[in-house]
Amino acid sequence: MSQTTQTLTVTPGERLRPNVTRRRFLKSLSAGLLIAVSASPIVAQEAPEAPEGRRLGRNRGPSQEGPVPIAARIHIARDGTITVMTGKVECGQGARAEISMAAAEELRVSPDQIVLIMGDTTLCPDDGGTYGSMTTPRTIPSIRNGCAAARQALAAIAGDQWKTKAADVQIKDGHVIDVSSGKQLSYGELVGEGLAKAFTQSPSRDVQITTVTHWKVLGTPYLRSDRRELVDGSHVYPTDIVRPGMLYGKILRPPSYGATLTSINLSAVKSMADVRVARDGEFVGVAGPSYTRAQQALDALAKTAVWRQVPHISSVELYNHLKENALNGIPQNPFADDLLKAAVSIRQEYHVAYIQHAPLEPRVATAEWTGGNLTVWTGTQNPFGVRGDLVRALGISPDSVRVIVPDFGGAFGGKHIGDPAVEAARLARGIGKPVHLRWTREEEFTWAYFRPAGVILAEAGLDAAGVISSWFFVNINSGPQGIEPPYRVGRHHSGFLPSDPPLRQGSYRALASTANHFAREVLMDELAVAAHTDPLAFRLANLESSRLKNVLRTAADKFGWAAQSAKKIPNTGVGLACGTDKGSYVAACAAVSIDPKTSAITVTRVTEAFDCGPIHNPAGLLSQVQGAILMGLGADLREEIRFDNGQIANDNFADYAPPRFADVPEIDVHLIDTRDVSPAGAGEIPIIAIAPAIANAVYSATGQRIRQMPIRLS
Amino acid sequence: MESAITLTVNGQKKSLTTDPARSLLEILRENLHLLGTRFGCGAGDCGACTVHIDGKRAFACQTPAAEADGKSVTTIEGLAHNDRLHPLQQAFMDEGAYQCGYCVSGMIMAAAALLQEKPNPSDADIRQWMNPNLCRCCGYVKIVSAIRRAAGAGR
Asked: What is the per-residue DSSP string for A375-390?
């Protein structure tokens, strides 16, 4: 990997309301630019074009994760301003706070003193996409190593200046101190050629990061430094970008999935002097001085469009379709002989519906061309991947594209892709003006990708001693994540079979771990009931991992499982579930009540225990766990994408019905701070136990076994 | 057809000539560049665009400009007094009652209208009043705590 030194160019006043981070960074640059190193070559990092659409996730090839020169990560200005740069993004999951804390810990300053630039492909190193719970295990170590190396360089330079022995040089509160003489220098005062030279190096392997027992910043609750902007309305989301001369854009969408444009009459908008149109094959976009005007123009154009439509699978045919199209057919259970002789045998089928991420900020991009150079502001979990999308779609060089990702309004795995960025850039190029392009809620529910639906076929045998003797578990279409059971299961096979998904599908918080845990944990309940065993005792007897047993015992104790499960109150019930994935461990207990007249399910109480290793930010982690519990509750009780004739039937919040205040049960979260292991990510795994815990509670209340998400009571 | 619209926004008189069918949300964002009021659904299903019109909670996306003509509109930008945050803003900040924060402007404006009508709401009151507002990060627990904290601070 070669390195090039480049001067940072940031256009002054590039936003109507430049956010504080960027303003402070500009100020620090003017106060004395040290050096900025950007890793290169960019071209080599771009993956070949991946087939679009019908596949899970999209690997855009190797990102340039790994050690980067200190200067690519940290900038120290003469006025002492410390700027840290990362390709990770903030979309509500808490990366801004956590990364600021990690940098502050190693640099011995307060996290509010860290200016953190995130998700800017020109300013930041590529730390990989923000997904897969990888910020904590992968990016935090990079940040800590870089900042610890910077701290060591500052100490060494001060020691050289003072000619003091290394043991007498200490670092505290943003200063280097000679304890033998009492002399001290601020970081800003140490800025110079020596530091610049040291910062061209990558952190060495033996860089000393702060051990858990010495943490002062990490491990204590912290709220992100831009918290005031979030409450006074001044935070700049991608949707809040305003550029001089900018128009508001709309894209012509097909009336149904798979429809192709036969003809269109662009002169339909000729009389609208303030509207501009661009067409490039199937791509037709309009832009006007307001979204209302753009919509009027789009409506006029759409009236003239002639489409060729094609048949499309509907949601009522979904599960049969997925089974019929399972790759290479559905395999036979190789342990069928075991089921014949088992004391208890169960064969069941579980269904998981398509759902939408439905982040509150719709997908949005603002694109501006300056000469042949393109800048796009957009909300994406993958800024470098979106730069690659733009390069491929527009046939331009990576050097001429800059993607900037302001902290944005929610993703949940739904914003890996650059669709609105590419659309805004094409439209902006076509009309010769900057374009703001924000999807409507209906577009969100139709043209964004979905969490894959799935069918899970599971068969298990239990011998007379209550030992699971065989386990056969096949997931069709939704994915392989979390498919291996954490239980001792004798002879076993777990497998994932791709199918022919009727909808565009992709990532979602925890991926298929939710589906696989749902089916497995309901099946475990079925086995426990068949064996006349308490579901808690049955799990504990068959689990291997001590950390998983610990979260399960903790959740059960705090919930009062023994007493609660012994109660027999009509139309109420309790259930539990547990699981592990990506190095985190979770267990949940749920209580429900059922309206006997309407069959409406109310979740009255949830207790969840979660262990992701050493906790970096207890405040952020609590938010993530509380949010995951409620998001999981929504997908368990109601959320389901329905489709017919290639159209989405419930393309709005009223019909899709995500969780609201009225759905919030009593929630009790227990965070287990296991300090002698490596930290694991926490944004996803707290969601995986909630659906089966509720489903099992509904069974205990009604006697009706729940084998589909969302739950339907007959 | 365009017509003249005059609004008082955060205490300042604003006049413009525009299509009166455009929403107040568009006027605020696109004409007045008051960007703290946000688009979430365009249908009154999420509350991200909540403002006060003549002191009452309203969805800016569901209010045609013509309907707001001559009225007084308060947005999130008008809630703080100089540098002093409204107690709800302070409480949301201190409680960490945000994840992505995109719903927060609407949440605070809705809650401010609640506290004007009912300075000491119960948790059930809060949930019922706030139910039209969506938080897709599902940060409802901390939002209720923040509103409770602000109500307590106002006592």
From this structure: EEEE--S-HHHHHHHH
